[in-house]
Amino acid sequence: MRLLFLGDIVGRSGRAAVTALLPGLIDRYSLDFVVINGENAAGGFGMTEEIVTDLIDAGADAITTGNHAFDQREALVFAERQPRFLRPANFPAGTPGRGANLYSARNGANVLVCNVMGRVFMDALDDPFAAVDREVSACPLGEQADAIVVDFHAEATSEKQAVAHHLDGRVTLVVGTHTHVPTADHRILAGGTAYQSDAGMCGDYDSVLGMEKDEPVRRFLTKIPSGRFTPAAGAATLCGVAVEIDESTGLALAVAPLSIGGVLEQRLPPFWG
Ligand code: FE2
């Protein structure tokens, strides 16, 4: 079974890359399931319902988020009625929407996707370890779920690695998002869980984290905001992580990064042949 996870979409350039490239990738490489973190898709801040629909039309089976989940106020409403939209599972009780959901893949497999947010150098949310444990034990691998994907939206690589080791052998993939830079540590952990500290972003890398670079550079130089952050408009690199899944166990057989377009090195998973 083939899974693709795409990192944080930033702005129009990231959206354009996803809608232009994803349908062809699904078709050409027979991808069974696609998860996309879309939390910066609407001008860098959150997602509109129209964007969510466009991503689903392009082939996203689940759309994860993070600290920007509700930057667009309409998300408070569509989070309830759109099962493919996830917000972090450890948001306060009563937050609209859901933090995990079970989906049917193109090959008929049941895939649990869980979105959780870290707490190191981030908001003081509920314990992410307890939250992800709750979701995974409610829908265990090999029982209700044939594969489990955890998007751990966090700043600190220590916290990302810790949650991955904590879940090793119980989920298919733990992938970090939020820092917008793909890390070179993709591997299969001892228990069979695929891991990469950060998937990178789908956005223009000639930027500061996907944002047009002049304003962030100015703020570092002067500490005086003199404009808004706006997404960089150059060609995006589609960045993500691909996993080949053992259908008998739901664990990873192979994991590799993917980067297509834009200014980064071009990489396709070798096992996609
Ligand atoms: Fe984020």
Ligands (ions, cofactors included): fe (ii) ion
Largest sheet: 6 strands, mixed
The end-to-end span amounts to 14 Å
Number of strands: 11
**Sequence of secondary-structure elements:** EHEHEHEEHEHEEEHEE
Side by side, the strands of the main sheet go: 4-5-6-7-9-8
CATH homologous superfamily title: Metallo-dependent phosphatases
Describe this structure in words.
The protein is 24% helix and 22% strand. The protein is globular, with a radius of gyration of 17 Å. The protein has a six-stranded mixed beta sheet with strand order 4-5-6-7-9-8, covered by helices on one side. The chain has a five-stranded mixed beta sheet with strand order 3-2-1-10-11. It has helices at 11-28, 49-58, 75-81, 128-138, 157-167, 214-222, and strands spanning 2-6, 33-37, 62-64, 100-104, 110-117, 147-153, 173-177, 187-188, 194-196, 238-245, 252-260. It is built from six helices and eleven strands. Helix 1 runs parallel beside helix 2 (49-58). Strand 8 and strand 9 form a beta hairpin. The chain has one domain (2-272): Purple Acid Phosphatase, chain A, domain 2, CATH 3.60.21.10. By secondary structure, the protein is α/β, with parallel strands linked by helices. Bound molecules: fe (ii) ion. The site of fe (ii) ion has 6 residues, from loops.
Describe the secondary-structure layout:
Elements: E1 2-6, H1 11-28, E2 33-37, H2 49-58, E3 62-64, H3 75-81, E4 100-104, E5 110-117, H4 128-138, E6 147-153, H5 157-167, E7 173-177, E8 187-188, E9 194-196, H6 214-222, E10 238-245, E11 252-260
Parallel strand pairs: 1-2, 2-3, 5-6, 6-7, 7-9
Antiparallel strand pairs: 1-10, 4-5, 8-9, 10-11
Helix pairs in contact: 1-2
The structure holds fe (ii) ion.
The site of fe (ii) ion has 6 residues, from loops.
